[in-house]
Amino acid sequence: MTENPIYWVWLQGALGMGSQLPMLLHDTYPGGLEGFYRSGPAGWQGLAGISPWQLRALSAFTLKDARSRLLAAA
Asked: What is the pLDDT of residue 35?
């Protein structure tokens, strides 16, 4: 399955470059990265491997922020 790049940019922007979590989520989360995004903060809480600071970062860095980065890179 090919992921929309916006979700990759969102996760990397939130978690920082080099984070292994986006690839792990891509490979294991139902619906991939988009499914993870759509599950929202309520769905992210309690997942193994996601710390409290990561939960805050995922909420703070928005899809709008990711779109801005993609447009700047184009």
From this structure: 94
Contact 50, 64 (CB under 8 A): no
CA 27 to each of CA 16, 18, 33, 67: distance values in angstroms, whole numbers, following the listed order: 19, 16, 9, 23
Question: From CA 12, how far away is CA 69, in angstroms rounded?
Answer: 11
Residue appearing with tokens 């990561």? 54
Q: What is the pTM of this model?
A: 0.86
CA gap 25, 49 in Å, rounded = 10
CA distances for 73 relative to 9, 22, 54, 69, angstroms: 11, 20, 24, 6
pLDDT tens per residue across span 25-43: 899 999 999 999 999 999 9
Pure H helices in the chain: 5-15, 21-28, 32-44, 52-60, 63-73
